[in-house]
Amino acid sequence: MKILIDSYKLLDNNYNLMRTLINNLQNDKNCEITLLCSSKDEKNKLTENFIFDGYKFKLFDEDLGEYDFYLSAMNDKPDCISKFSNITSVAILLDLFYRFESLDESFATIRENTRFYRNYDYYLTPFNYPENIHNITDDLEIRNLIYLNLYNFSDNYTIEKELEFRKSVCTNAFSSLILEKMTEINNLRSNEPLVSVVTITFNLIKNGRKETIVECMDSVKVQDYKNIEHIIVDGNSTDGTMELIKKYDSINRLRVYSEPDDGLYDAMNKGINHARGKYIVFLNSDDFYCRNNAISDAVSLLEKNKLDYLFGTAKAITVEGKVVLWHPDINSIPYAMNYCHQTLFVKTEVMKKLGGFNLAYKVSSDSDMMIKLYKDNYKYGVLLDPYITYRLGGLSSVQSEQSKLDHSNSFYKQIGSEIGLTRKECEELWAMKFFKTYDIRHKLYMIRKLSKKFNTETVLIKIIENENYDLSLKQSVKRILQICARKIKIKI
């Protein structure tokens, strides 16, 4: 979140509280803070002061269109940002209480003096203005944090009391409350739910993925859906990957976290924990959205139909560079991956409820998640127009045997055992290997079990098309045809 701070009077001792708040926001990884200066002289004074060492600065006449919020504790009107409709202006009434002491004013007078803050889109204040819907402190602890401490501070002012007040009010908790509410403001203003795009990285340059991560980030950046947070979770890269991403981040909006992890799915779980969006999607560092309305189409389908998750058609780039389509099919869960996880949009609260990805499945925890979502009857939809391009050759691709074991084990535990299949049978279902393993009667037995949960018409037809039975199996084949006929409602 990019925040523009009005620097007016920040060097004044009366504004210690505001400075403390700014420092807290600056230290928050979710924030990028820039101080707005009215003149070059003011900018020079701030840059020369060690308190603001390391901060970014902007002048009034520079382009401010990239910012999400403009915060002020003093100016009466946010005229400087009036031409930037994308910026939400917020007034924070933290330091005005000092007038109470220095000017011997009453609370009533302070309230009158702060009427001009209603010119802002939103404001934070310990005082009630019930007629104004833009006061965003009604349901927050901010009011108590300021209001309850105001009396003690205003009585016989001392520097020590001010320091205690600063500690009690402008804490990290206070800053977090402000950020939480500003996130809500952004969502309400846009009327679009926040989408968290999570990308996992680790030593991309070393592994020849320098170009693909840029392609990935670019595909998110150009989306016509704007209420997006792009979260980069890095496994503590040592090859310059972080430097590359941070350089890119100078022109983009990223939330970057870098620390050691316990593998891909542990990193993805960290992404879930960091996600603030209503929906979450995992975009691999070598994958990208193949059209700029991918996210808007997905959100539209999710919202319109009140879905818990959706998946869809994807483009896959083979090792040879050939592009093929992956067509999703929920009924293929017993036999293989039913859709690629990069197409999965799911409610963040659902992912958290399910406990995130199971780290016991080192290769195919994404498959385990797909099975869980289906097994627990979450409402889903399918987006048929391809919207994601991914590259073959990932972890599950190169470790197919482990992938098979992970998938079949998850399927057995969550669905197979409930419908009467053995663990071995669930393993043989993978890639339809049961075709070669079992006789026709055993195949029919397994299909009947599967039909309790899935549409098995396609598999039945495949059995008919691909098996050459002798005459002794005539009755069995007729039985298959009868089952197919019931499915398609044709009499034989």
Layout of strands and helices, then pairs:
Blueprint: E1 2-6, H1 16-27, E2 32-37, H2 40-48, E3 56-59, E4 69-72, E5 88-92, H3 97-102, H4 107-113, E6 122-124, H5 142-154, H6 159-169, H7 172-190, E7 195-201, H8 210-221, E8 228-234, H9 241-249, E9 254-258, H10 264-274, E10 279-282, E11 288-289, H11 294-304, E12 309-317, E13 323-326, E14 345-347, H12 348-353, H13 365-375, E15 380-391, H14 395-398, H15 400-414, H16 423-429, H17 434-437, H18 440-450, H19 457-466, H20 474-488
Helix pairs in contact: 5-6, 13-15, 15-16, 19-20
How is this structure best described in words?
This protein has three domains: 2-189, Rossmann fold, CATH 3.40.50; 192-401, Alpha-Beta Complex (Spore Coat Polysaccharide Biosynthesis Protein SpsA, Chain A), CATH 3.90.550; 415-488. It has helices at 16-27, 40-48, 97-102, 107-113, 142-154, 159-169, 172-190, 210-221, 241-249, 264-274, 294-304, 348-353, 365-375, 395-398, 400-414, 423-429, 434-437, 440-450, 457-466, 474-488; strands spanning 2-6, 32-37, 56-59, 69-72, 88-92, 122-124, 195-201, 228-234, 254-258, 279-282, 288-289, 309-317, 323-326, 345-347, 380-391. It has 492 residues and is an alpha/beta fold. The protein is 41% helix and 16% strand. The strands form two sheets. Strands 7, 8, 9, 10, 11, 12, 13, 14 and 15 form a nine-stranded mixed β-sheet that branches. Strands 3-2-1-4-5-6 form a six-stranded parallel β-sheet. The protein is built from 20 helices and 15 strands. It is elongated and about 95 Å long. Mean pLDDT is 80; it is low at 96-114 and 129-133. Helix 5 runs antiparallel to helix 6 and helix 13 packs parallel to helix 15 (400-414). The longest helix has 19 residues, at 172-190. Strand 1, helix 1 and strand 2 form a beta-alpha-beta unit.
